[in-house]
Amino acid sequence: MEKPSRRTKVSEELKRLKEELNAEQAKSREYLDRLKYLQADFENYRKRVEREFQEVTQRSNEKLIVNLLNVIDDLERAIETGRTTVNANALLEGVEMTRKKLYTILEQEGFVKIEAYGKPFDPNVHEILAKVPTKNYDEGIVIEEVRKGFMFKGKVIRPSIVKIACKYEGGE
Q1: Residue 113's beta-bridge partner residues?
Q2: Cα Rg of the chain (Å, integer)
Q3: Which of 57, 88, 114, 171 keeps 20 to 30 A from 156, CA to CA?
Q4: Alpha-carbon distance 152 to 147, whole Å?
Q5: CB under 8 Å to 70, separation ≥6 — which residues?
Q6: Which range of residues forms the domain containing residue 70?
Q7: Sites in the chain below the pLDDT cut of 70
Q8: pTM of the entire structure?
Q9: Together in a domain, 96 and 129
Q10: CA dist list (Å): 58 to 20, 66, 155
Q11: In angstroms, what CA-CA distances link 170 with 130, 135, 164?
């Protein structure tokens, strides 16, 4: 039996390496094709989710607007009543009921008033307008709310502007 020559060995090795390279190139093309399909699928998914999100947002906005239209109707009735009545108490009562309805609608959406009066000052939800020396309240207690503050779904969207009590150091 004849020993294979070095050239034959190199030729066989080269042939084997070419076959492995072709197999790896085929795998690479298959992976690239899969990746392209996945990218296209993901892009379609992203667009669908975005479209669905916009639809949900629009439906939510429509619901809120329809509820607010009822408040507008009540305000228009109050204005008409104000033009024709001499009973200021009835008008005031109607406006207060309308305000209550508005707050109820907004609370259903996650909008709430920040309670400030009589509470300890909280820099996360209050802004100090003034410190008022007083003996009637403990230091740091909100004694007047100058402007109401509001939160929306747990986030402060407008802090309360308040006056707080500070230590009274005046004479008797």
Answers
A1: 150
A2: 37
A3: 57
A4: 17
A5: 101, 105
A6: 1-109
A7: 1-4, 170-172
A8: 0.62
A9: no
A10: 56, 12, 22
A11: 17, 10, 17
Write out the two tokens for 53: 């999100």
Looking at 63, 84, 109, the residue that finishes a domain is 109
Q: How many residues does the chain have?
A: 172
Task: Annotate 111-171 with DSSP letters as a single string.
Answer: EEEPP-TTSBP-TTTEEEEEEEEESSS-TTBEEEEEE--EEETTEEEEPEEEEEEEE--S-
- pLDDT tens-digit readout, 1-38: 566 688 888 899 999 999 999 999 999 999 999 999 99
Q: Do 3 and 81 have their domain in common?
A: yes
Q: Is 114 exposed, middle or buried (0-12, 13-18, 19+ CB in 10 A)?
A: buried
Say how many domains are in the chain.
Answer: 2
Same domain? For 116 and 54 the reply is no
> Are residue 57 and residue 99 in the same domain, yes or no?
yes
Let me know: does 159 contact 149? Beta carbons within 8 Å.
yes
